[in-house]
Amino acid sequence: MLPFVFTQQAPSYDSAKVFYVRVDPGIGVSDELIKSLYYLLWFPGYFGFNWDALYDCLRDFEWIPCHKIVVFHEALPPLDRKELKIYLEVLRDSVLDWRSNDTHELEVVFLCSDKMEIEDILKG
């Protein structure tokens, strides 16, 4: 079972309690996606702009005051399949890692229409 949340529409949250970011659905290059997440999630200056650095920062969040962090995707990023698989694995592993830690909660949200494709990509 996937650790992501699937919804019919963009969720809404209390901005005083939840740090909410929306990933631009038009980003089709992994370097641009990583750079966008750097800005959206306020990653520290030492961020390395690669998949490993993304995973490391998704597992930290000491700079974000809210307990819950939500990363919403209104569409799967149009990356090539190999890069998209890496991205989804980084997100999946990060969400799972936070489950054993109560400092923060990471919630990654996709639309229901993307669920089967995500399952297929992560199986491959």
Automatic annotation (TrEMBL):
Source domain of life: Bacteria
Residues annotated as domain Barstar (barnase inhibitor): 31-102
Organism field: Pseudomonas cedrina subsp. cedrina
InterPro entries: Barstar, Barstar-like_sf
Pfam family, one: Barstar
Family: Belongs to the barstar family.
Name by which UniProt lists this protein: Barstar (barnase inhibitor) domain-containing protein
